[in-house]
Recover the amino acids of this structure.
């Protein structure tokens, strides 16, 4: 019964567009992600970069500190400091065997597991194009991140 309810909620809140030929497929919840952002203007950029780097520097562990964990930590931080419209983005590899998760906020991608120049505040289009080039061309799902106190 719970599965059916979750499935039903998913059907009504997520619009999925399917594209063939290895194009990136996007699913957006509650409309277009390019809407005007409601972003707090007093977010401290230095503190934001510092927190991102702190999360990025945590050693990667497939089971306990992977891209999902790091993305959720950074998304939680963004929400705690007042950022709005924070999304976790799941990008499937074309093999279908694994996926990657990052944070999208204000039209930019934050990837705490990436060790190159694309990790911090990269334009969404540029980031997805680069990932597509290395095989992450499967379904891409955006879902609004909601902070949960632990």
């Amino acid at each position: 019964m719970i599965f059916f309810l979750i499935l039903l909620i998913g059907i009504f809140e997520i619009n999925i567009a399917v594209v063939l030929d290895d194009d990136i497929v996007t699913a957006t919840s509650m409309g277009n992600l390019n809407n005007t952002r409601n972003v707090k203007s007093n977010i401290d950029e230095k503190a934001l970069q510092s927190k991102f780097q702190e999360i990025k520097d945590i050693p990667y562990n497939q089971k306990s500190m992977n891209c999902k964990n790091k993305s959720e930590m950074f998304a939680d931080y963004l929400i705690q400091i007042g950022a709005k419209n924070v999304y976790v983005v799941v990008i499937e590899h074309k093999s279908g065997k694994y996926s990657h998760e990052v944070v999208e906020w204000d039209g930019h991608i934050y990837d705490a597991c990436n060790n190159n120049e694309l990790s911090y505040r990269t334009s969404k289009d540029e980031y997805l194009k680069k990932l597509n080039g290395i095989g992450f061309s499967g379904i891409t799902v955006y879902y609004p991140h909601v902070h949960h106190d632990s």
